[in-house]
Design goal:
Length: about 800
């Protein structure tokens, strides 16, 4: 919302400075976005006297002027204006001055061989008008050497405020002035309209020949509750007066003609959008109705809009003439030949206006106000105000008013206790002050303040405040005018004990998972929570017999299902990066997945993918080492690092070969704490999945369900025991066992760990062999056993006994035979 200072002063009797006004506006909730002061950018322009003006020796259309600037020696200026002459006074800009009309900073120059040390300016170059035919010609009494804007004295600052959607009353200069007056910054003028005349009923001289019909069913009369129309005959639609054009230009509007400019003026002055029809172009009576499918309207912006039955139009016998509350039609628009004009003022349904405007992509000042809600009580006065301005500026004779419909019921009463302000805000405002504030804003307060009557009073909001519905809204009005700056800061009361953790275990794990995966050189991705039905079926909906979670109103056909896994989005993102030349990528995401529609079926997962040379801890292509692509062991390292970083005890973790159907069956594994508690998987993505997704592989991936990770066991708080190091040398023995190919290496390692938990310090698999010399269906597993004595050095007999025990237990539990 833009307005000029002088426009505001037409409504507000105040002597406050511009700085105080803008500060108060922000204080009362009308945030000032910008203040444009034309005088500020013209401070360096001064009044000068042309002592001499001679013909330029090398140019027919240039003159060489000697200019007295009142600051010492005369200055030589080369000027091309046809009206530059000896003895005139004009506006001079010295070198270094910014010329706003040309968007340049002036410097010394040589023009056709003659030095020029400044510039004599036109009004267009100072952005004071469109006149660029000659330099400014000042009267003889203009003081030489004076700052031009100080002598001119009528440049008007422009203020722009940012309105919240709940303040339709301040889409007018009058409403802004009302708020400032309530804040104590002056007095709201009782006669705040052009010509110092409040809107009064204009007596009609003849019946209006155009009738109006509101053609709506009983359930849809709210689309246009009231429609007011008046004909003015014999007008002369010439350009509007200079004061009106200047005011509209200042706020960024283009003056068109007196009739159109009047409607724009009333829109901003009183927040009452109007429309004018050329009466001679209207055929028959006007009907306000829903548009019909297939109808079109050539609007005033030169565009043709296709209409549908959800939109409201003003139509005549020719069809739609105006899109209700948004924009008029070009066919019935007013131009310089308009003699008879119809002035329309109506009420429209805010929701329907917003819906139509969004659907057609039209943004106008009328739509801006109607979709927020205009003052219904000013519907007819707005028409009267426009009529009077048309008669004053264009002449003509008015008809009687035609009114269809009636004012909607807006009266409401709020039971308001004065103590509510203190209860909600902590600020004690005296009841008398609260009453004065509400009344100055137009609220009707019945009942007396405490001490004379009960604490509760009845408050009726004015017609221009549809946003005020309850006690909290009244408190807001009181507190913003009284001043939030009156609230004194107070320290929070001291707490006797420190609060416990605020975040849950899952929230902490979610944050930690992001840090851990990022620390492993991966980039975080945020992908759609929606995927296609085909992707949902690939990643769990069919294989796990999960129910289909399909959106009832998807934003796109390929985003129709809730994702059961994070991997579809990550795999697609990796391929998109590869398509753009970034093939070696490592991406991760931590987010929600949806197993079903139950209360506890939304899970938090952490997933990651690696592609190309993006190995864990790798450096891509480098001369110091051969390049290697990411493989299943990189995915395993990422998964183990993630679990270790989350504080998961890895001793009981089982790594079971094979994973879900979207992973390669021979290059994947499932992570679990027992068969009934799987927590995730890792491996190479199945080639079939890559083919169906049109992704070039290979890619490796992991996915961990953070919800499924067991919570750490609560342990009593105790001191960490001191580090105990053995003084005896550890002993390492290697064993090679022949086992069936189906035996898992982890089963053999468990046997080795269990032969003597007090002595066995470490067990490691150092070799797997299935090549030449092995029987079909057999493989060789090499196990390194480390023994750490704590009390005495082990003898050979003790070591041999442990070895024999390992061989016996391995044979018993896995069928292993010691390799000869």
């Amino acid at each position: 919302m833009k307005f000029t200072l002088s426009w505001l002063e037409d409504h507000l009797d105040t002597d406050a400075s511009l700085a105080v006004i803008t500060e108060t506006l922000t204080k009362i909730g009308l945030e000032v976005e910008s203040v444009t002061d034309p005088a500020a950018k013209l401070r360096e322009f001064m009044i000068a006297y042309v002592i001499e003006a001679k013909q330029h020796p090398n140019a027919d259309r240039l003159r060489v002027c000697m200019v007295d600037t009142g600051a010492g020696e005369p200055v030589q200026v080369v000027c091309g204006a046809p009206n530059a002459r000896k003895g005139m006074k004009s506006v001079f800009s010295p070198p270094g001055t910014y010329i706003p009309g040309k968007d340049i900073t002036l410097g010394k120059g040589v023009i056709r061989g003659v030095e020029s040390n400044g510039m004599l300016c036109s009004a267009a170059e100072l952005q004071l008008s469109e006149d660029h035919d000659g330099i400014i010609d000042l009267p003889e009494d203009a003081p030489v050497g004076a700052v031009y804007v100080d002598w001119l004295g009528n440049l008007d600052p422009v203020i722009e405020i940012n309105l919240t959607p709940n303040r339709p009353d301040c889409t007018s200069v009058h409403g802004i002035a009302r708020d400032l007056a309530a804040a104590g910054l002056g007095r709201l003028k009782a006669s705040a309209v052009i010509g110092s005349v409040e809107p009064k009923a204009v007596k009609g001289e003849f019946p209006c020949p155009v009738a109006v019909t509101l053609d709506f069913t009983a359930n849809h009369k709210g689309l246009c509750p009231m429609f007011t129309l008046r004909l003015v005959r014999g007008v002369k639609n010439s350009p509007s007066p200079e004061w009106l054009q200047k005011r509209l230009k200042a706020i960024g509007l283009r003056p068109i003609s007196a009739l159109v400019d009047i409607t724009n003026y009333v829109t901003f002055d009183r927040g009452r959008p109007l429309h004018v029809f050329d009466a001679d172009k209207v055929k028959g009576d006007l009907v306000v109705r829903r548009a019909r499918n297939g109808e079109e309207l050539l609007a005033l912006d030169g565009k043709t809009y296709a209409l549908d039955e959800a939109m409201v139009v003003i139509a005549d016998d020719n069809g739609p003439e105006s899109l209700a509350g948004i924009m008029g039609g070009e066919h019935s628009g007013c131009d310089e030949n308009t003699v008879n004009v119809l002035i329309e003022s109506a009420l429209w349904d805010p929701f329907n206006i917003a819906q139509t405007g969004r659907k057609l992509g039209i943004i106008t000042d009328a739509r801006y106000r109607f979709e927020r809600g205009v003052d219904p009580a000013f519907n007819t006065p707005g028409c009267e105000m426009a009529t009077q301005m048309v008669m004053d500026l264009c002449g003509g004779a008015p008809s009687d008013l035609v009114i269809a419909g009636g004012l909607p019921e807006t009266d409401r009463v709020i039971d308001f206790p004065w103590s509510e302000t203190k209860r909600l805000t902590g600020l004690a405002v005296h009841p008398v002050e609260q009453k004065v504030i509400l009344q100055s804003l137009g609220f009707h307060v019945s009942g007396l303040v405490p001490g004379h009557a009960a604490d509760h009073v009845k408050v009726s909001p004015p017609s221009w405040r549809p946003d005020v519905e309850g006690k909290a809204d009244l408190v807001e009005e009181v507190i913003r005018i009284s001043g939030l700056d009156k609230l004194k800061p107070e320290p929070l009361p001291a707490q006797e004990q420190v609060n416990g953790p605020v975040l849950t275990l899952l929230q902490r794990r979610t944050r930690a998972a992001k840090r851990i995966l990022a620390g492993r050189g991966m980039m975080e991705a945020v992908t759609w929570t929606f995927i296609s039905e085909a992707q949902a079926m690939m990643f769990g909906r069919s294989a796990n017999m999960l129910p289909v979670l399909k959106l009832s109103n998807p934003i796109a056909s390929d985003l129709s299902d809730m994702r059961p896994s994070l991997l579809p989005g990550l795999l697609t993102s990796a391929q998109k990066n590869a398509d753009r030349g970034f093939g070696d990528v490592a991406l991760f995401e931590v987010g929600q997945i949806y197993m079903s529609d139950g209360e506890n079926d939304q899970k938090i997962a952490a997933a990651a993918v690696r592609r190309g040379l993006a190995k864990a801890g790798g450096q891509g292509r480098h001369w110091s080492a051969p390049a290697a692509e990411a493989d299943v062991f990189d995915a395993k390292a990422d998964a183990m690092a993630l679990l270790a970083g989350l504080g998961v005890a890895l001793g009981g973790l089982q790594v079971v070969p094979g994973g879900p159907a979207w992973l390669h069956p021979g290059r994947s594994a499932t992570l679990q704490f027992g068969p009934q508690n799987p927590i995730g998987c890792f491996g190479e993505v199945h080639p079939r999945i890559l083919k169906e997704l049109d992704i070039k592989g290979p890619l490796v991936a992991l996915e961990i369900l953070l919800d499924a990770i067991p919570a750490p066991k609560a342990r009593p708080t105790r001191m960490k025991p001191k580090l105990a190091l053995s003084a005896f040398q550890p002993v390492t023995r290697d064993f090679a066992f022949i086992v069936d190919a189906s035996v898992r290496a982890d089963d053999l390692l468990k046997v080795a760990r269990g032969i003597d938990r007090a002595l066995v310090a470490d067990v490691a698999l150092f070799d797997v062999y299935e090549g030449k010399g092995m029987e079909p269906g057999k493989k060789s597993l090499g196990v390194a056993l480390t023994l750490q004595p704590k009390e005495r050095t082990l003898t050979d007999a003790q070591i041999d006994a442990l070895g024999q025990k390992l061989v016996a237990e391995a044979a018993k539990k896995t069928g292993a035979v010691l390799r000869g």
